[in-house]
Write a structure and sequence with these properties.
It contains nine helices and ten strands. By secondary structure, the protein is α+β, with helices and mostly antiparallel strands. It has three domains: about 30 residues; about 200 residues, no CATH class; about 55 residues. An eight-stranded mixed sheet has the order 7-6-1-9-8-4-5-10, sandwiched between helices. Helix 4 packs antiparallel against helix 5. The chain starts with a helix and ends with a strand.
Length: about 325
């Protein structure tokens, strides 16, 4: 009796399994866009830690040799020094002293030049680079900023230093225009040797990108990749916007130190951080990445998701 019941249950399971698969597919197809494509993300970036901007020309000092002139009579030749015609042996002694002093001077100059070249080569091999991170959490009402970021991703020049500088200024200016919607913020800056700065920069970038369920728009070194949004937007038609927040992250690596970023405890602190980033000269920029989520219109980022994925951000 028990064996018959077990066999019957197995038969029911085999029959219902396809029905369950069909039901799951229907749920995914009819679910709101925010439930399926939660936390879509955008990315704009460029630059390279391997660019030859850190090299410096090495100068080689001229090679000096003591002149030799033919002798005439008891003294040395006229082209050297006129006083050596007088005094015979005294002229020879004076000449030897001058040659010795000149040789000492040349060696001293060469040693100083070699020391300077050695110091410069150390700085060239592994110069100091600052990696700055600024994160801004905005209310979802700032949807126009999301559209501006999407448009910027399709138009920005992310291959030249001038284009990266313009991208940085556009993003910081756009964020400051929507300061009324700021809700959370965070900033930090680490000054490291080039090799360690590169690791930190790409580690921070990967960490931010891992928070996206899908990277739906990307412009990296003028290579644009975009997920087709037309079908997704048609699926989202008529669905109310239930998103609560929009998060924008700025990662900037630059040579030198332009000042310490303040700890973000207020909107004034966050504004100061953005102004400092915007003031970085183009010739000091090493690499930039701008990441934002959600990227797709109609996507959602709840307060719970923000606090879970961005615990370092503080309420302003």
């Amino acid at each position: 009796m028990d064996e018959n019941i077990v066999n019957m249950l197995k038969h029911i399971g085999r029959v219902c399994r396809p029905l369950l698969a069909i039901a799951l597919a229907l749920i995914l197809a009819l679910a709101p866009l925010g439930a399926v494509w939660a936390r879509s993300g955008g990315r704009i970036g460029g630059g390279s830690f391997r660019s030859p901007t850190f090299s410096a020309p090495r100068s080689i000092g001229p090679h000096y040799s003591a002149p030799v002139y033919p002798s005439y009579g008891g003294g040395f030749g006229f082209p050297l020094l006129v006083p050596f015609f007088w005094g015979g042996g005294g002229g020879l002694l004076t000449l030897l002293l001058l040659i010795g002093a000149g040789s000492f001077l040349v060696q001293t100059l060469r040693s100083a030049a070699s020391s300077e070249e050695g110091d410069d080569s150390i700085g060239v091999r592994d110069p100091q680079v600052t990696v700055a991170q600024v994160k801004v959490g905005l209310l979802a009402s700032a949807r126009q900023l999301q559209k501006d970021m999407n448009a910027l991703a399709l138009e920005a020049d992310t291959q030249s230093p001038e284009g990266l500088s313009q991208l940085l200024q556009e993003v910081t200016l756009g964020l400051m225009r929507y300061s009324d919607y700021w809700a959370y913020g965070h900033a930090q800056a680490d000054r490291l040797p080039l090799s360690r700065a590169e690791s930190l920069f790409y580690q921070a970038s990967l960490q931010e990108r891992s928070k996206f369920s899908i990277e739906s728009l990307s412009n990296r070194n003028n290579q644009i990749q975009q997920v087709s949004q037309a079908a997704l937007q048609r699926s989202a038609a008529g669905i109310p916007d239930i998103g609560e927040y929009l998060v924008v992250t700025l990662l900037v690596a630059y040579r030198g130190n332009l000042g310490t970023l303040p700890v973000v405890n207020s909107m004034a602190d966050l504004r100061q951080c953005l102004l400092q980033l915007a003031s970085i000269p183009a010739d000091r920029i090493v690499a930039i990445e701008v990441l934002w989520t959600p990227q797709l219109e109609g996507d959602t980022l709840s307060a719970e998701a923000l606090l879970t994925e961005y615990p370092e951000m503080r309420l302003l």
